[in-house]
């Protein structure tokens, strides 16, 4: 154990998250504006999309909710929202444009929900928490983009809303490695368990088998 890990451990952080029996999968912002590299706001997230699809396909087949999020702005909002003053490139995510459509490689289905948001968190200003509560969800698997932005914000708000949080490291992506790694470390210490696709597939299969 490194000195850094010892500091967190002695402070009581990094404890394992209990896993419930009613999971949902939240796929954060795997829209073309983030996944299609012809757009300057995007990065190559092909592997993360492929891994995420394994989880969503299984969860959907088991009857668990699969929710996608996208950021979409109306033209009238572009010069008024504070976030867009800092992250000006996000102004390209206009409602009705291809950039805000969910990437078809995710395997999104007509039975899945789509949450449209204006900020980083999937929960802020949306009905997501109410939707999950009504579906009796106790644990959320959070995948998507970006690790240091919308994934992290969604993980923080998910645990604050009362849900156990699981983040598969090979299902989340960022534009650079350092913020990806740093934010996964922070999520693991404070907000949820950072795991991987294979572990979650095994867990879901176990739930299906009545474990």
TrEMBL record:
Pfam families per the UniProt record, alphabetical: Isochorismatase
**Gene3D superfamilies for this protein:** Isochorismatase-like
Locate the Isochorismatase-like domain: which residues? 24-198
The UniProt keyword set, sorted, is: Hydrolase
What domain of life does the UniProt record list for this protein's source? Bacteria
What InterPro entries does this protein's entry cite?
Answer: Isochorismatase-like_dom, Isochorismatase-like_hydrls, Isochorismatase-like_sf
Stated name of the protein: Isochorismatase family protein
Taxonomic source organism: Alteraurantiacibacter lauratis
């Amino acid at each position: 154990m490194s000195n850094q890990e010892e500091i967190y451990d002695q402070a009581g952080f990094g404890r394992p998250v209990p896993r419930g029996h009613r999971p949902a999968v939240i796929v954060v912002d795997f829209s073309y504006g983030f996944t299609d590299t012809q757009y300057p706001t995007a990065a190559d997230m092909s592997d993360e999309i492929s891994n995420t699809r394994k989880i969503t396909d299984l969860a959907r087949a088991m009857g668990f909710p699969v929710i996608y999020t996208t950021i979409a702005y109306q033209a009238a909002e572009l010069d008024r929202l504070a976030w867009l003053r800092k992250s000006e490139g996000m102004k390209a995510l206009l409602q009705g444009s291809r950039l805000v459509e969910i990437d078809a490689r995710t395997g999104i289905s007509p039975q899945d929900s789509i949450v449209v948001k204006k900020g980083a968190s999937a929960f802020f200003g949306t009905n997501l928490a109410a939707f999950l509560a009504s579906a009796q969800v106790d644990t959320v698997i959070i995948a998507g983009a970006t690790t240091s932005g919308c994934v992290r914000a969604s993980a923080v708000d998910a645990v604050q809303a009362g849900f156990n949080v699981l983040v598969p490291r090979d299902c989340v992506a960022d534009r650079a490695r350092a913020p990806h790694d740093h934010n996964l470390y922070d999520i693991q210490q404070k907000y949820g368990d950072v795991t991987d696709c294979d572990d979650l597939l095994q867990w879901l299969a176990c739930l299906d088998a009545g474990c």
